[in-house]
């Protein structure tokens, strides 16, 4: 066997076999006290090993969590000195964020991490879920970065089984960070991805094979999302003939970048043609890293891009611009499924769409072992050493029954272990992680579709009680109702009343936006509500929606202005007739607060009398109350 290896600071690459041992600053990556020596084929073997014995690995994972965190105030309260799995299952309650919030607030205010975790908390992750209108903050420990790296490293070997040769090209993966803040105790508060991209794990990721990204790191790390997007797309265009995969974390972010490209391609062509960078890019690190890429004027490439982008239809633009792209990696399940048609339009069906992973701030959960299946058939296999997973049953034989309320106490005996879930059944996922969440209800509803070896595979069904979502916003029926209740008061001075309403997320244009269908009744026929009042109703709804919605709208600009479409009198009766004609029960009929069926949407749109948009951005400040 050939022994000549090039040892880099970043990793050891055996030139002949192109296998990589992940090393960070000369040290191997450790997880749960075990050294992870990672190689492409070894990742696949590891998946096989873990899926053959998920039950044993789950028990082992829970034991490790209890050993590490047994001394915490939280666990001692329920388990005393015990570290037994059976005591954990008997005494630790199944809870929502509300139960952890007081502990997290105390830690934010300077109390010790040992309230929740054995290891010091290193960052607070702000998730896209909210509680009481504020983003949920989730503790994270240093070792979580190793765990996330381990998880990410499983993905490409899986894909490489189906599409070899990925290491011969570059990846245009559009990654973005958000600005971070500090808690009173000094801990950084940031999104899980921001934490990851700023870590040495990301900085020192092994670049060969697989990780030859088109975007230079300083561009990814730029806090200004517009400058970052500009530079990432420009770098992707410069390397267009070498790009073999495209992606972003979520489909919404990928499509947003496509629409940014649509608005800026003329500038991109100018930059490429002249070998200079648009003056709107002012961030010094972005400028210097991009100037290394735009090292010479390239009129030939500029002309190619111009010819492609200048066509009247953008159908198939993605394969035309990136002809060697073998797939697009972005989450397309759950609320992201609404973006499949747009992506199919831009790819013309010529670049496969791949949803590779299911993850959250709380824990990284599962990988898609059949990445090239149709987007609607995607299932995720939960990786059993990432956390301890339990399941609240929500119905069998394809019937989903949400009989346990969102905040209701769940009887502990109801919970089912990972290895005991049944095909066809629905469950809400409950997670116990290494960093201080115990039997925490994720709110995600999953359905078991089958098994890989003995490990169950899950289809992501929905986020519990979320009715509207365009990007990372997640609006529940309750939030929607509260917002509409405030807004409809603005109609009262005009003797007008909101008789009925429903909504849908319109993603037919980018960025997507919320649409509210309103049926208004007047007490007298003389007065009419004028346009400015209905515009004020739009902004009143937005002002009352939660922090993440307002951030997406005002800061990220990933959600467009909210729209109210006023429908003719009698429209909601016609809607009821439609649902009943499709088999609904008249006595149980309730107006759905979110419309997904095409026929219902067609009916509503056919009855629109006028539409109004929010006239300004809702208030949003980058601060969370502690
Ligand atoms: P966050 O808390 O902001 O990290 O968001 C995590 C949530 O995003 C999960 O709990 C899911 O509701 C959703 N999510 C993450 N990955 C996927 C996926 N592959 N498919 C559908 N939804 C997902």
TrEMBL record:
Residues 478-597 form the GH3 C-terminal domain. One of its GO terms (cellular component) is cytoplasm. GO terms for molecular function: acid-amino acid ligase activity. Pfam families: GH3, GH3_C, GH3_M. Keywords: Ligase. It comes from the Eukaryota. InterPro entries: GH3, GH3_C, GH3_M. Residues 380-463 form the GH3 middle domain. Belongs to the IAA-amido conjugating enzyme family. This is GH3 family. It comes from Dillenia turbinata.
């Amino acid at each position: 066997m050939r022994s000549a290896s090039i040892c880099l600071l970043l990793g050891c690459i055996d030139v002949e076999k192109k296998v990589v041992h992940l090393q960070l600053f000369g040290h191997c990556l450790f997880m749960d006290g075990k050294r992870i020596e990672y190689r492409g084929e070894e990742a696949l073997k590891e998946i096989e090993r873990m899926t053959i014995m998920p039950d044993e690995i789950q028990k082992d994972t829970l034991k490790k969590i209890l050993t590490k965190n047994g001394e915490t105030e939280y666990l001692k309260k329920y388990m005393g000195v015990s570290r037994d799995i059976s005591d954990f299952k008997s005494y630790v309650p199944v809870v929502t964020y509300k139960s952890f919030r007081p502990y997290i607030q105390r830690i934010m205010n300077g109390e010790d991490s040992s309230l929740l975790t054995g290891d010091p908390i290193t960052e607070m992750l702000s998730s896209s879920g909210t509680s009481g209108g504020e983003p949920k903050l989730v503790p994270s420990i240093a070792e979580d970065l190793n765990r996330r790296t381990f998880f990410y490293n499983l993905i490409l070997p899986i894909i490489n089984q189906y599409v070899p040769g990925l290491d011969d090209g570059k990846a245009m993966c559009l990654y973005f960070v958000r600005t971070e803040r500090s808690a009173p105790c000094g801990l950084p508060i940031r999104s899980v991805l921001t934490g990851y991209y700023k870590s040495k794990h990301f900085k020192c990721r092994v670049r060969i094979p697989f990780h030859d990204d088109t975007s230079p790191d300083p561009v990814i790390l730029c806090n200004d999302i517009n400058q970052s997007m500009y530079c990432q797309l420009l770098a992707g265009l410069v390397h267009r003939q070498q790009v073999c995969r495209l992606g972003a974390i979520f489909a919404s972010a990928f499509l947003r970048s496509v629409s940014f490209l649509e608005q800026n391609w003329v500038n991109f062509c100018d930059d490429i043609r002249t070998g200079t960078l648009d003056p709107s890019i002012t961030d010094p690190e972005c400028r210097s890293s991009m100037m290394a890429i735009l090292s010479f004027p390239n009129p030939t490439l500029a002309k190619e891009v111009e010819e492609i982008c200048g066509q009247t239809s953008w159908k198939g633009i993605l394969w035309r611009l990136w002809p060697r792209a073998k797939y697009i990696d972005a989450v397309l399940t759950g609320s992201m499924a609404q973006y499949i048609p747009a992506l199919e339009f831009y790819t013309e069906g010529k670049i496969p769409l791949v949803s590779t992973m299911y993850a959250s701030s709380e824990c990284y959960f599962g990988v898609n072992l059949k990445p090239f299946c149709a987007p609607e058939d995607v299932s995720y296999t939960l990786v059993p050493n990432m956390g301890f997973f339990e399941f609240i049953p929500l119905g069998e034989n394809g019937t989903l029954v949400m009989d346990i309320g969102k905040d209701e106490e769940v009887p502990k005996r109801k919970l089912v272990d990972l290895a005991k879930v049944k095909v066809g059944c629905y469950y809400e996922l409950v997670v116990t992680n290494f960093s201080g969440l115990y039997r925490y209800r994720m709110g995600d509803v999953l359905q078991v579709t089958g098994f890989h070896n003995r490990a169950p595979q899950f289809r992501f069904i929905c986020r519990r009680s979320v009715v509207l979502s365009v990007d990372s916003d997640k609006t529940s029926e309750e939030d929607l109702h509260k917002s509409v209740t405030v807004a409809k008061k603005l109609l009262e001075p005009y003797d007008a009343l909101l008789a009925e309403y429903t909504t849908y997320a319109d993603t037919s244009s980018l960025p997507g936006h919320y649409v509210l269908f309103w049926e208004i009744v007047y007490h007298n026929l003389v007065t009419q509500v004028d346009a400015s009042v209905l515009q004020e109703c739009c902004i009143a709804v937005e002002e009352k929606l939660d922090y993440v919605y307002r951030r997406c709208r005002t800061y990220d600009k990933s959600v467009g202005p909210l729209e109210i479409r006023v429908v003719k009198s009698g429209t909601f009766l016609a809607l009821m007739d439609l649902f009943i004609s499709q088999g609904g029960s008249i006595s149980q009929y309730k107006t759905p607060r979110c419309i997904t069926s095409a026929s219902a949407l067609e009916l509503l749109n056919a009855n629109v009398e006028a539409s109004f948009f929010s006239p300004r951005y809702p208030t949003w400040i980058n601060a969370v109350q502690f």
